[in-house]
């Protein structure tokens, strides 16, 4: 990169002198747009300008399927333009602030402020401060109460919105559930509105849209027929390498396994599949329009797609001659699944990832992770036979009812995996990755306490000691990050004050630096003490949200958000967890009356069971 | 069927590409990735390497730095089956991202091994006093030695720019806007880069600002 200063009146956009600053920042191609398949429309020819905002870096945001879907749907409308905006990295932010360049959208370079609607994707609680920072960089007041008639409408969607309260001070309206259909309704309400109050009223009357200033009760939106749903067949091709730099083909939505810790498994019910025919058609179009050499079959549990074997073989036959690989992001731990994966891996060889989640059968029963040690070791043996040499095992610690015996079970299981390789005459590479359990809203564990930071760190030590000399590499999540995640995910509206304080930094003269807080999801930027200080100043005890057992009768901050599951179901599941009893997959067993059939007239699961 | 075994150097096409201002902030690796995807979209019958991770068989000339535009980025493509160079050019240009364009394509004669260049000609747009810049450029060409410092990962290294400086002349000026063309040698000994030249020039003329760097051609 040239160290000299560039001075040109404009690089691409609007007369911002980006040539002055882009040579100085890391990965400047994050900020220039112009990618293949990006959609450019004349703003004068549309009625609604919609900015799709992702509160993290370009590389992460460009990998997000929700953003891709909405970009496609909105830009298909002749009355709307959708453009992308991501959180600039700290070096770019500093340059933008120094040069007074407002946050701009990548397609047109128009300031975010000039858009009609800014829709944030909230997929992870630790990106909340980035939402505030992006609004501020755009010159938009961060507090909804301080935004006037001329400010854009700020909305948010994504899985975090199943508990919208912590972000209620900053967001005008939240979309609960799937966006494909409701986004059209939002555009129509926007086009018809006269004045902000009327707009918010209209949105509150739209099914699936929560307006915090009006406190309306909301039921999540579900797209029943995935074959009929719009799907992006010409996604924007990022210029720089992104997290998921391949074709993402969503084969199925929802999961029926019923793992009790898993929020996605609960809130994306019922299970719906795309037909094999539709998938083939989409894959062909995606291959032609992108030039990617890999198709990832995406879902929460792709191995559970009915007819997965046929689909994979069909795809291998169709795409292998074109040197296009197929990948399954989630593998079930059984030998049949390994055999299937081994066929795929003929094209690409990579490590094998399995998620036993807990170290003992007892604890796996508690969390309803229906995989036995026998399944797991059988899967590993098969995988080694098919040529894998590297295994990554995902676990959680801090799970309900967990004892040190369960922790040592992780080491035992990892050791067994190693022994299988040894018996087969080689030394496998085994990575054990340990996350800390975060109780999430709308799951059977929503009333549970998270282990304190000290307890998690003690358990990490127990595991480290148990793994000494066990030929296993261990990595773990920072306990303090997980605690913050727990506070933010089960928080109420009072947390808004702490989020604002944490982002803004401390007032001058209070003895701490003015550094703004953002990129909490990034280890190098995360500052726990700053957060604790913010909680303190906001008069909030983080332990109240993270480490407290709730009573089943307590009114929860997300009780007005209906994601399908009834409280009776969640309580029943939590009680079964306590006694270590499992609930089988409803697609293989019977309907367990989770409650989602109240939302969708014919739950596909109920229908399948009836057909049998 | 053709009984003759395919020799290694058949069906090779040399491409000369433009790296326009729209894509000037792409690294060389990003540029290659964008080009690889374009190859597949255009369904160019490119030869693939063997192994677990097959890649299109291609080779590249020297790459320009991030922020530099170019009219001469070179790629040699190995094709798995014959395709006319003009067709390759046309197919790629219909699906390349804005800012990347195949300017020329020619079939390579058998036996050409790789892209051999000895240097590059750059056009620099500057802001500064044109007569001072012209004088300084002349002085640089006359000097026996031009010491410049390079910083790489906190290590500084002294090098001599002079053996790698082929030419430097002002080709146009308008007010305080000056266009300068320079020829720089590349090569195994390290060669020189435009920023080396700028460093030497700034030592002689303090108040100049570099507006843009463009590679006109490889030598």
* Total number of distinct structural domains of chain B: 2
Please give the count of helices of chain A. 21
Q: Give the amount of beta strand of chain B, in percent.
A: 35-45%
Quick one: biggest sheet of chain B?
8 strands, mixed
Shape of chain A: globular
Compute the average pLDDT of chain B.
89
What do we call the CATH topology of the largest domain in chain B? Alpha-Beta Plaits
The CATH architecture assignment of the largest domain in chain A turns out to be Alpha-Beta Barrel
| Count of individual domains of chain A | 2
The helix content of chain B is 10-25%
Q: What are the segments of chain B in which pLDDT stays under 50 over at least 5 consecutive residues?
A: 1-6
Radius of gyration of chain B: 20 Å
CATH class label of the largest domain in chain B: Alpha Beta
Hey, which two chains have the biggest interface? A-B, 35 and 39 residues
Radius of gyration of chain A: 24 Å
Distance between the termini of chain A: 64 Å
Overall pLDDT confidence of chain A: 91
Mind explaining what this structure looks like?
The complex is a heterodimer of chains A (612) and B (219). Chain A has 612 residues and is α/β, with parallel strands linked by helices. Chain A has two domains: 18-219, Cobalamin-binding domain (Rossmann fold, 3-Layer(aba) Sandwich); 247-489, Alpha-Beta Barrel (TIM Barrel). In chain A, 35% of the residues lie in helices and 12% in strands. Chain A is built from 21 helices and 17 strands. Chain A has helices spanning 18-21, 58-61, 65-76, 90-98, 128-137, 179-192, 196-204, 263-267, 276-290, 308-319, 335-344, 361-366, 373-385, 404-423, 453-466, 479-489, 495-504, 528-537, 542-546, 567-578, 604-611; strands at 48-54, 80-86, 117-121, 153-157, 173-175, 209-210, 218-219, 247-250, 252-253, 272-273, 294-298, 325-327, 352-357, 390-397, 429-436, 472-476, 561-562. A six-stranded mixed β-sheet of chain A has the order 2-1-3-4-5-6, with helices on one face. In chain A, helix 15 packs across helix 16 (479-489). The termini of chain A are far apart. Mean pLDDT of chain A is 91; it is low at 1-12 and 508-515. Chain B is of the alpha+beta class and 219 residues long. Chain B folds into two domains: 12-107, 2-Layer Sandwich (Alpha-Beta Plaits); 119-218, Alpha-Beta Plaits, CATH 3.30.70. Chain B is built from four helices and ten strands, in the order βαββαββαββββαβ. Chain B has helices at residues 28-41, 85-93, 130-142, 194-204, and strands spanning 12-19, 58-60, 69-78, 100-107, 119-127, 147-152, 155-160, 165-174, 177-185, 209-218. In chain B, the strands form two sheets. In chain B, strands 1, 2, 3, 4, 5, 8, 9 and 10 form an eight-stranded mixed β-sheet that branches. Chain B has a two-stranded antiparallel ribbon with strand order 6-7. The longest helix of chain B is centred in the first third of the chain and has 14 residues, at 28-41. The radius of gyration of chain B is 20 Å and the shape is elongated. Classes of the chains: A alpha/beta (612), B alpha+beta (219). The A-B interface holds A 1-8, 11-12, 19, 22-23, 28-29, 31-32, 34-36, 237, 239-241, 287-293, 322-323, 348-349 and B 21-23, 25-27, 29-30, 33-34, 36-41, 48, 52-54, 65-68, 95-99, 127, 194-195, 198, 202, 209-213.
